[in-house]
Amino acid sequence: MISGTTLHLTTAGLLGVALDAIIRSSAGTIAAPVGIHLALPGPAALLPTDWAQLTTPYAAATTA
User: Fold this and answer.
1) Nearest-angstrom CA–CA distance, 44 and 59
2) Which of 7, 23, 37, 55 could form a disulfide with 28 if both were Cys (CB 3.0 to 4.6 A apart)?
3) Going by C-beta distance under 8 Å and a sequence separation of 6 or more, which residues neighbour residue 16?
4) Helix 26-39 and helix 2-23: axis angle, to 10°?
5) Where does residue 59 rank: exposed (0-12), middle (13-18), buried (19+ CB within 10 A)?
6) What is the pTM of this model?
7) Would you give the distance in Å from CA 10 to the centre of its chain?
8) What average pLDDT does the chain have?
């Protein structure tokens, strides 16, 4: 659980830094990762069952 959370936060941070280097706009840099985190659970349902069971609990839109 802890390693999965650490991996998720590290990946989210690196994604934000990479998008900052590409977009070069403060609003776009903030909006892009948020949009990606909220939009990914939909296509994640298309993954094979064992992958979806591993990834969807960490999606921002599915956590309570």
Assistant:
1) 9
2) 23
3) 29, 33
4) 140
5) middle
6) 0.52
7) 10
8) 77
Residue 1: predicted pLDDT: 62
Distance between CA atoms of residues 57 and 42, nearest Å? 13
Burial of 15 (C-beta count, 10 Å sphere; 0-12/13-18/19+): middle
DSSP string, 1-64: -HHHHHHHHHHHHHHHHHHHHHH--HHHHHHHHHHHHHHTHHHHTTS-HHHHHHHGGG-TTT--
Confidence of residue 60 (pLDDT cuts 50, 70, 90): low
